[in-house]
Design a protein that fits this description.
This protein has 249 residues and is an alpha/beta fold. The protein has eleven helices and seven strands. The chain has a single domain, classed as 3-Layer(aba) Sandwich (Rossmann fold), CATH 3.40.50. Helix content is 39%, strand content 18%.
Length: 249
């Protein structure tokens, strides 16, 4: 990757309104891909919307595909933003947008080294997510989906998911969070719940990191990037689970 291509990506992402500013975008990308090698890898971005992660991965040398079920007819201009971002960086980038649900897309056998689900894991089956703790059918639905994702990953591949946990201080005391006022907390689950389901289908125990407000930078990450601070602030986490290199007997 040349510095020129990376700079074009950063400039285009800000100009198109894909992210607020370059400094925060760089922090976001470091957080999302922490410990993940992208060069010459096959990456699937589930619900990737405007394509900031897909295009970035391609800039870093990946063969990247974004699966976005809401792209067709989206009032947010998802398809247009994705194509504009790719064109502004390099029209020849190996970054593609597919209009489909993850379930339909993976109904055909495919293989990836990295699967990213950024703030969309609860939307893969929203009704099942809501009832995940008390409905065996809901658990089975997510296990079936995770099993398909597991099968699509090459040995040693990674599933990276970010989302908000259902546990939040302000929600627990019955008031709207000043930091995340639009979150419907009952439609989310804790990283522990997701980790438990992922391990059932074969993933190794996940590594969980907690987000801090991006604008606070590295100091904020160091001081506030923990479960206790997250419970009061964003309740936002990053979960990274690896497929074993060899089958477990």
């Amino acid at each position: 990757m040349s510095a020129d291509v990376m700079n074009r990506f950063l400039d285009a992402a800000i100009q198109l309104g894909v992210y607020s500013n370059q400094k925060n975008l760089k922090r976001h990308l470091r957080f999302m891909f922490d410990g993940i090698d992208l060069k010459k890898k096959h990456l699937l971005d589930v619900g990737g919307g405007t394509g900031r992660l897909t295009v970035y991965a391609a800039v870093q040398g990946a063969d990247a595909v974004c699966v976005e079920p809401e792209a067709e007819g989206s009032t947010g201009g998802v398809t247009e933003k994705f194509l504009q971002l790719k064109k502004a960086v390099d029209p020849e980038l190996r970054a593609d947008l597919v209009v489909a649900s993850i379930q339909n897309y993976l109904s055909v056998p495919r293989s990836f080294d990295v699967v990213i689900i950024a703030n969309a894991i609860n939307h893969l089956n929203e009704d099942a997510c809501i009832h995940l703790l008390d409905d065996p059918a809901a658990q089975s639905a997510y296990e079936a989906l995770f099993r398909v994702i597991f099968s699509s990953l090459n040995p040693g591949g990674w599933l990276v998911a970010t989302d908000c946990s259902k546990s939040n201080f302000f929600n627990d005391i019955g008031v709207k969070s000043p930091f995340m006022p639009d979150i419907e907390w009952h439609k989310h689950q804790s990283p522990r719940t997701w980790d438990r389901l992922l391990q059932r289908v074969g993933f190794l125990p996940a590594k969980v990191q907690w987000s801090s407000p991006n604008a606070l930078g590295n100091i904020g990450r160091f001081v506030l990037g923990n479960r206790v601070a997250a419970y009061i602030l964003l309740s936002h986490f990053r979960l990274a689970a690896m497929k074993p290199l060899t089958a477990i007997a």
